[in-house]
Predict the 3D structure of the following.
Amino acid sequence: MKNRVLRLTDWLFLLILLLGGSSLAYGQSATGSLFVESVDDSGSPLPGVTVTLTGPGAAQVRISDEQGRVRFLGLAPGSGYMLVAELEGFSPIEIPDLEMVVGRNISLQLYHESAVVECSLGPTGVAPLLDDRKIATGVHLLNVELDRLPSPNDPWALLPRAVGVLVDRVNVGGNESGQQARFVSNGAPFMASSWVIDGVEINDPASRGASQTYFDLAAFEQVAIVTGGSDINALTSGAQLNLVTKRGTNSWRFSGRYLITDQSWQADSDINPVDLGQPGPWNGGTAQEPIVAGASIDNVDDYGFDVGGPLAEDRLWIWGSYGVQDIRVFRLGPGAPVPDNTDLENYALKLNGQLASNNSGVLFYHFGDKVKDGRGAGPTRPRETTYLQTGPTDIYKLEDTHIVSGNLYITGLVSYVGGGFALDPIGGLGTDPNLNVVQDQAGVYHNSYFGYSTERPQEQAKVNGNIFFNASQIGHELKFGVGYRWNEVSSLTSFPGQGLVGKAQFGSFFGPSGTDFLGWAYHDIFRSNKFDQWNVLLQDTITWGNVTLNAGIRYDLQQPARSDAPQPAARFADIPAFANVGGDLGFDWESISPRIGITFAFGQDRDTLLRVSYSRFADQLGTGFFSALGVNPVLIQYFYWRDDNGDNIIDQGSISLLPGLFGDRSSVPNRVGPGLDPALTDEIVLGVEHALRPEFVVGLQATFRQNRDAIVSDPFVIADGIQRPVARSDFEQVGTVQGTLPDGSTFSEPVYALRSGVVREAARGSLTRNSDLGSDYTGINLTVNKRLNNRWLLRGFLNYSDWAYQGRSARDIQDPTRGIGTVNGDQVLSQSNGSGTKNEVWISSRWSANVSGMYQVAPDRPWGFNLSADVHLREGYPIPYRTSISGRSRFTNSDGFARTVLVTRETDSFRNDDLVRVNARVEKEFTFSDFGLTVGVDAFNLLNNNDTLQTEGLVSSTYVDNNGVAVGSFNSTNADFIRETISPRIFRIGARFSWN
């Protein structure tokens, strides 16, 4: 692996030399930009103005061109910048206290007069928030918001502050920290999300949308959450999280923290008994017992520090950080709360060097480790079936920026991410037969669980550049780039005991008595997949008077492949060792994504901006998508077993093997349809922003998205002796499911199955192809953003959205049995499968709002203090009541299809409580010469709401054939039970200290 990294490094530096140096990364960069235009009192450009920028690093000097323009690119985010503009015959202009924002631009227009000095920024020198070069939508959270607003130390907890982002969980005081949340963004699914730290992409190559590592927010200067727009750096339409760590400056600085959250400061969970699941025909007349529904905190310790400064002033700077989160919580378990303990350790080191007046470089290392004792704890996963998760992730980056001339910047970057982790069941992975996994008739697992280990390394190299030139009165900022990323995922799934898994809930359908249960025997499973990603980017920012035009295009090539994967023999059944053969998977994803945006600035002070943009996005590849394609068999043998004594142990004498192997994909492999392409998203954004003051901006924005070419898999069948993908004409109605919903209303939904003469292949191969399926999204947002000024800051939004399924035609929905996502106009639901037990979270809200802010009370008085709050509201997530006939249709018919039937009129006919979450903080700052101390108290879920987050949606039903005869039933004993509420109020106390 090291040799491969060295080869990439050598290749990149050779390319840098050929191009003449290296420069600014954009979009997902870790920097910001400053654009300055100098004019005289008549508005004519002033060439030859000397503009000096000082700040965290070495001073930079530029001379304005014939249009009076100067650019400072690749500036480290943060405060403390000062700009001075000087020209003989004119008084100098000085702009102090500029703050750079990651991925954004500051545009200053300076008015020079020979007698007096005027500056468009006004007497305070505050840089305007409006950015007429902005090409992305989203939110940029600055250091003051990360430090001063109440929030757990968890980047997923920041997501609700971005417009249109909906998350599957509510983090109260750290009870969900150390777990990756699932989320959607403005009509984009979770798998379209991406993660970047200091310019390095760290998307999990196996699980699209997830991060390779975990984080310590105290290490970051800023966090940007981009949700759309015309920036060509974004391949996908999902939320792009850009995290930028701090850096050393010309002054030594040290800061640290110690925060503690304890169960003794936690309120009681006040769940009214009438809100619990009530008995009825939907759950067999079972009443819900009192529960502790939220994840309660035992103790959370959060501590760490960071330090940085000059090794050689104006030449070399160093910065490092260290942070630990020790998280002890209880999850809802079967009968009693289950401990869930997580330790997160993070440290980072960064070296910034000014190698020459026109060249700078960065060396960066980040280490993130997670040790979790109790992963997977929940109502069906007692202690012995939970996981001990381990596995650190290392991130290395080398970056160099070269200013070839005042009009040409080049940046080169190479990186390596060494990801991977292991999930070891607490019950063990030994060969003792008593460790065989059993799921009892109530769905609860026993004895142990399967194990999983994986390695997920990735390498990245990219070169980006900027060229500036003027054509008459029109300015051009041409951005270009080429990038390469290599990803590999290998994994081993191991089974305890003899590799047997018993499923007691299928019992009564199969054996002569209720104690004859179904099970299956496995071999351990090894997989190895990889893919390459290439991209070429080109974008021009054209400025002409009050008009700014961004036009760009990107080309992407994503190439999957599979390595050879030897499979061991099964320990019990007659499954021999064999090998999965690697090679090409028969498709490459190519996409061309145009982007265009135009901004009009109105008013003498350009304080109103009108924006219009169009963008096309494509899906990103991940091994989780293509690992089941091609010849990749997993061999399974079914068996019966008896559990007469009810001890949930598979006794060796009670096993009766069923003839034949099932799940062998070698004879009928999963295939790829001709011209398989990534799904596409087209986006149009309309917006207007107005600056009430330079530091106070309000906006109104409408986003329209069309997601199309969704990828589906059509199983192969044998029809009239011919093998082909299943079609709509293969299905006929075979009966209905009938029952009663928790509100007392009844349902009767038709059920379809394969007609006579059509048989699904035992190997269950499928054809993966593009379809006409898709969805449409409309979002309207009202936003407000006020930077900290005059003792207060404010950020907030109000969002209304409609995200509905479209293209559900007879050709693309073969089985007419009604399920989630099969009816045009139904709201799109995104089921969570993130860390923890979140299967009954169906993400979908038509409205949401968030307001966060801070007010400094009497800051000049000795008793002064700060008050801050973060308030989040949204519509409750849906409860898609549904019933299951999967067991009957899979085993007693020859159909082979599992079915979950939606039994409500629409996907969101029923919803959980609307969510109201209020976090607040009060803090007091003390200053002693160069030392600062801040002590504070945070209150999470201040109102102590117990809003329901999850409700069991599987309801009982009777299966009736076409003659009206009841031929089966599905029994749910916990339908409409509350599975989770927001955790109760809890307080956190802590101290932050700093020295400079």
